């Protein structure tokens, strides 16, 4: 007999444990702090919910959707920058760290959001842009005003190598030299990103003090932590040496390709992170790192030798697996899971193309969206979701250069189209503008919104949204999924990724078919110390029996099966 395992069944089944979840304290019986089992959800405030119908999302909009997030199973939200900003890089250019961008509301709206979150046990985290400010920030305005200004040394100023020659060969992530000449004082300032985003000089203790003051100010207002932006480029080489150039290739901006050894990952940044962590610890707050790394040793360093730096350095190497390869994912998981730090999994964000497009094959995209959800939400570690992934939103890239809103896309067009595509309005329902706003939104709504939206998907038992909902419910209530160690299975299988999460004799098995064919999987459980012959299906993305023999589990193309060993 084949029974369909509906999300509703799983919910009923887990009903008893749900109360415990709502009441959870900050440390569990394993001594794990709250964030180790939390599901985080990134909100791009401009695109989430528009409460005042001006085409731009805002803080009251987010507050009005907290019940939805609670229903979904979200424990904490991270809001991309919502501070006053000239918006050359959509908020990552902050002109005042002590306020709210009027587009998004007022300070009291932030306080209201934090309070409404508390009522629902949803913590609110902000984005802390430590490395650079807007050129409109009063700190920079003072710094550029004269060579003797007290804040001159808050930023990185240098003489050029010669007339019209920047101090060295470092290039900006947004294209061109990373130095901009500033005529009033005849010196160059350094900007790793866009020219209106001058880098702060973290070798100056006054900068650290100013930023730690900002940090404390927000923590006192009740935010639960921060996502730390671009920490890898916080320091540059004290001697300003040229980066070596690799070959003759040019990047999307037409610049030479450099090995970034002098403008990235300088050891001094770890001292700042340790001191910042001490500030966060005073408030029991959590630090999430935008930690782009080349290898696991770099990622490990972000946890700190004594686990005293970033609580949650995001593993972006995981996001670089750009095809459905069981072997590749297995390798990445083994690295981070064996690193000694608590893994932090991410699939996409406001800088990374959406999962639906990155992994979709054009035919099984919905199944693949569920498969990828099952992957990062059943692993040992904390997961950071990106808004809209739960409804299968896809990229909506600009078609014409005049439509591009992201400066990266404007500078890099046509090779680099920028990141507008993954930042489009959240799709709430099938009405005009996807229920995001009554007026035309700042970025165009993705064309599939009539079927891929929250209202519609809530009513379809088999939708991506209901799958996420079931998965998150399961994750929050199943001890093996919360605490269990990760044991890889069938490590030679090129098509199917399978593993066990094992906790005190309870074993949850996950089988993910990353291929377009039905796979009959024979699990090598006994070899791994889990001699289970049968397993009970907890959640499957396809029709499957309620009980299976582990000697042969049949998994549909791109199917995800999660079960408990009996
Ligand atoms: C961070 C942000 C990205 C931004 C960049 C420069 O990497 O995630 O969106 O463009 O900083 O500001």
Task: Set out the fold topology.
Elements: H1 7-22, E1 39-43, H2 59-64, H3 66-72, E2 76-79, H4 107-119, E3 123-128, H5 138-145, E4 157-158, E5 179-182, E6 187-190, H6 205-220, E7 225-228, E8 245-250, E9 256-258, H7 268-282, E10 286-289, H8 296-303, E11 312-313, H9 326-337, E12 344-346, H10 355-359, H11 365-378, E13 382-386, H12 407-412, H13 454-459, H14 464-477, H15 479-483, E14 485-489, E15 496-503, E16 506-513, E17 519-521, E18 534-540, E19 547-549, E20 553-555, E21 560-565
Parallel strand pairs: 1-2, 1-13, 2-3, 3-7, 7-10, 10-11, 12-13
Antiparallel strand pairs: 4-6, 5-6, 8-9, 14-15, 15-16, 16-21, 17-20, 18-19, 18-21
Report on this model:
- The chain is α/β, with parallel strands linked by helices.
- Helices cover 27% and strands 17% of the residues.
- The protein has 15 helices and 21 strands.
- It has helices at 7-22, 59-64, 66-72, 107-119, 138-145, 205-220, 268-282, 296-303, 326-337, 355-359, 365-378, 407-412, 454-459, 464-477, 479-483, and strands at 39-43, 76-79, 123-128, 157-158, 179-182, 187-190, 225-228, 245-250, 256-258, 286-289, 312-313, 344-346, 382-386, 485-489, 496-503, 506-513, 519-521, 534-540, 547-549, 553-555, 560-565.
- An 8-stranded parallel beta sheet has the order 11-10-7-3-2-1-13-12. Strands 14-15-16-21-18-19 form a 6-stranded antiparallel beta sheet. It has a 3-stranded antiparallel beta sheet with strand order 4-6-5, with no helix packed on it.
- Helix 4 (107-119) links the parallel strand 2 and strand 3.
- Residues 1-25 have low confidence and may be disordered.
- The structure holds alpha-D-glucopyranose.
- Alpha-D-glucopyranose (GLC) binds next to loops.
